[in-house]
Design brief:
The complex is a heterodimer of chains A (319) and B (121).
Chain A: H1 3-15, H2 28-47, H3 49-53, H4 62-87, H5 93-101, H6 118-139, H7 145-173, H8 177-196, H9 208-213, H10 221-239, E1 249-251, E2 256-258, H11 264-274, H12 278-291, H13 293-308
Antiparallel strand pairs in A: 1-2
Chain B: E1 4-5, E2 25-26, E3 34-40, E4 47-54, H1 58-69, E5 77-82, H2 94-97
Antiparallel strand pairs in B: 1-2, 3-4, 3-5
Classes of the chains: A mainly alpha (319), B alpha+beta (121).
């Protein structure tokens, strides 16, 4: 068969909603797009542990601490599911991680913002995980099998993340004057960066078109963003708080909320590495990797020793 | 000395023609081997493939699999097998490979029209 035959079969599969599996022929650009997208997603899970890790030792109660540890552990797991996904496309784990550490690979810019108060942990769960879930639910139907399966697994675990975040804010919203102020402040700081998580506007996004044709993405950035705004604009009322956007208003005609313009200059600045915590996050990753080197070496040495140890009969036998 | 060999990952393509491009890798001496993980979710059910992970040896693969894949009581038993020992059929041959099963509708019970009076068959 010629290349164009393979391409025809590939296109027919996409057309007929048949998942592409690792051994199937796929266009080079499809493979590259997936490697880029899945590894970015994996890095986001891994780097995403850092802003929250900041609060594990300072969580206000043992219950909150146990919950936060469980959530951070989930994120490590999500990163691993996704790294495995990239490996089915023919890149090694080591290459992928090196690309993160060298700054070549990107991760979601949201994790370059600092977590200043305990309320930020609530806002991250409610807003950041809430935004991520919309994207991830869509990706459960993505055309590449291993990516879709990883997403199904992740979505099952993710809704606890959003609920625990809302629960933190809800508790604060019923608290003292100071706690309520803290809650509102966290929402004010996380709202716009959360909207930025959906990426550039459809009219500006370089990757969206081809990804949509290949059914990697099933909804556009703007569609997802609108869905998010509609959802959060209602939920914030339950908290008795407000979103920091004076243009936010229900549009009866569109049956959607209208909202203000995102500060795109800030968005591109953070993507380019000039966010509040870009350097700190990468340094923390590299430090963890370097300082864990002895653990990796020890495990390898131990595995070697165990595999080459001579068989000794159990005690009390052969006497 | 570094030497180049073709490395096959889980699900990787064993022929040049069936990949979008030829990939060759310097085998990383730092990456631990890849393991495929199978979980029995409940006593009485089959072990089912759930994903893969890296580990230095089988013991560590089982422990990592517990942490990565059974944090919410998803399993009562774990199998791990090094990915390099998994052999798969080639998707390009699927049509001819599965052809013998394609035209034998008489293997299914619904092929047979029985008289109404026959019960419980």
């Amino acid at each position: 068969m010629e290349i164009h035959d393979f391409e025809k079969i590939f296109n027919e599969k996409i057309e007929n909603e048949i998942k592409i599996e690792p051994k199937d022929w796929m266009p080079d650009a499809y493979r590259k797009t997936l490697i880029r997208q899945i590894s970015q997603h994996a890095h986001s899970e891994i780097v995403g542990m850092l802003p929250e890790g900041n609060w594990i030792t300072r969580a206000p109660s043992l219950k909150r601490k146990a919950i936060l540890i469980a959530k951070v552990q989930d994120e490590a797991g999500h990163g691993l599911y996704l790294y495995s996904g990239t490996e089915t496309l023919g890149v090694t784990r080591e290459e992928t991680i090196n690309d993160l550490h060298s700054g070549k690979a990107k991760y979601s810019s949201i994790f370059n913002y600092p977590t200043l108060t305990w309320a930020d942990i609530g806002a991250i769960g409610w807003l950041v995980d809430g935004a991520a879930i919309l994207n991830q639910v869509m990706l459960c139907r993505t055309s590449y099998g291993p990516y879709a399966r990883a997403m199904v697994r992740i979505c099952k675990e993710e809704s606890f993340h959003q609920r625990q975040g809302f629960d933190i804010l809800y508790t604060l919203s019923k608290g003292s004057e100071e706690q309520r102020a803290m809650c509102q402040d966290a929402i004010n700081r996380w709202w716009w960066p959360s909207l930025m998580m959906f990426g550039p506007k459809d009219s500006e996004s370089a990757h969206s078109d081809q990804s949509t044709n290949w059914k990697i993405k099933r909804m556009s950035n703007d569609e997802l963003r609108q869905k998010f705004v509609d959802m959060i604009a209602e939920q914030v009322k339950v908290l008795g708080m407000t979103l920091p956007d004076d243009k936010l208003k229900w549009n009866e005609e569109r049956k959607h909320y209208d909202f203000g313009e995102i500060n795109w200059e800030e968005f591109w600045n953070v993507v380019k590495g000039n966010g509040p915590c870009n350097k700190q996050r990468l340094q923390a990753r590299k430090k963890a990797w370097d300082e864990g080197a002895w653990v990796r070496e020890a495990a390898e040495a131990f595995a070697k020793k165990r595999n080459t140890a001579p068989l000794t009969p159990p005690k009390g036998e052969n006497k | 000395m570094s030497f180049e060999i073709r490395k096959f990952f889980y699900g990787d393509i064993p022929e040049n023609k069936s990949g979008g491009n030829t990939q060759s890798h310097i085998v990383s001496k730092n990456d631990w081997p890849l393991w495929e993980v199978f979980i029995r979710s409940k006593q009485g059910l089959d072990h089912k493939h759930v994903g893969s992970l890296h580990a230095a040896d089988a013991q560590m693969a089982i422990e990592n699999a517990r942490d990565v894949y059974t944090r919410r009581m998803e399993g009562v038993s774990i199998w791990v097998v090094e990915s390099k020992y998994i052999h798969t059929s080639n998707p390009d041959d699927a049509e001819s490979l599965f052809d013998p099963a394609n035209d034998k509708a008489y293997r299914h019970p619904t092929f047979y029209d029985l008289p109404e009076e026959v019960k419980h068959m």
